[in-house]
Design a protein that fits this description.
alpha+beta, Jelly Rolls, Arc Repressor Mutant, subunit A, 2 domains, three-stranded antiparallel β-sheet, 11 strands, 46% helix, globular
Length: 295
């Protein structure tokens, strides 16, 4: 089941949208949109899906940022400790600040942050505590102050680096935030060829390195082996295909570069904690629940 394309309506007097939602069913649709989204919710518990990552939400306050066209949903069942569920939702065009402004040296950290929203970001403490206050201030502010506060929020998150990436590289399939370095060449080669049989020697030749030198270089730059990275790319893409539900598990296996179903199932379960069939079933069940609620 593919995510619905959601149209965000922005008041013509503003350059971006800020709204406050209340109630137990504030956010129940599997969707995507061309805008960057900042979403802070407090007072509820539920289930979150961002890209290929599903997780339970248990804390009293929770915040994520999603980049353009990254599918996501959060299903909140009810309030906690008698509190009403309330959320502040911000949508803005990623080009809102303009290329010249965003490329200023002072904006480097915000630019890098916006680029990383491709994968979805979950805001962590202590930055989360700051965001709870600032996001509600943003909603209450007048038009001019809103823009200043939005920049302040993005700057606070960027310099604090108090966030975790959510979706996998294989699902997001975008490393545009990286400089045009040698490692970026390997990422691009991998995304172009992961459906084929890739050898370490073939990848190493892209940088004119020996197999041993390449393995040391890649591990130093990424903290993981190339085989681990390739597995993440393939399994991330598999999650996307399983969600779309247009192929069966066997077809997904071969579409992601595996010629051995047993190896595919083993690697999938290693990364996702469940079999491909269980992953697809759980996702589709959640999507159907959301559809029923929307109806």
């Amino acid at each position: 089941m593919k995510p619905a394309l959601r149209r965000v309506t922005i008041n013509p007097e503003y350059s971006f949208s800020v709204r406050k939602d209340t109630g137990a069913q504030v956010y129940r649709m599997w969707h995507h949109h061309p805008e960057v989204e900042l979403f802070l919710i407090r007072g509820g518990k539920g289930l979150q899906i961002v890209g290929d990552k599903t997780s339970n939400i248990t804390e009293s306050c929770h915040m994520i940022i999603t980049g353009p066209y990254l599918p996501h949903t959060i299903v909140y069942n009810n309030g906690t400790s008698g509190k009403e569920v309330e959320a502040i939702v911000v949508h803005f065009d990623p080009n809102i600040f303009g290329g010249a402004f965003l490329n200023m040296p002072e904006m480097r950290s915000i630019k890098e942050l916006l680029d990383q929203t491709t994968f979805g970001l979950e805001i962590k403490s202590p930055t989360l505590e700051l965001m709870e206050k600032q996001m509600f201030e943003l909603y209450e502010a007048d038009c001019t102050t809103r823009l200043i506060l939005l920049l302040h929020i993005l700057h606070t998150i960027a310099i604090g680096k108090g966030y975790d990436r959510i979706a996998s590289a294989g699902f997001a399939n975008d490393f545009s935030f990286r400089d045009n370095t040698r490692i970026n060449k390997i990422y691009q080669f991998t995304f172009d060829n992961f459906q084929k049989n890739i050898t370490i020697e073939e990848v190493a030749s892209q940088l004119h390195l020996s197999k041993e030198s390449f393995c040391r270089y890649f591990k130093l730059k990424t903290g993981k082996t190339y085989i681990q990275f390739l597995m993440e790319v393939r399994i991330g893409h598999a999650c996307k295909l399983l969600m779309e539900n247009e192929m069966n598990v066997a077809e997904v296996c071969f579409a992601c570069g595996y010629n051995n179903a047993s190896n595919f199932h083993h690697q999938f379960k290693t990364l996702k904690g469940k079999t491909p069939f269980q992953y697809q079933r759980d996702y589709l069940n959640t999507a159907r629940i959301n559809e029923n609620i929307e109806d």
